[in-house]
Amino acid sequence: MPRSRNLVAAKAKKKKILKQAKGYFGRRKNVWTVAKNAVEKALQYSYVHRRTKKREIRSLWIQRINAAVREGGMSYSEFIGKLKKSNINLNRKVLADIAMNDPDSFKQILKSVS
Question: Would you say the pTM of this structure is higher than 0.90?
Answer without folding.
Answer: no
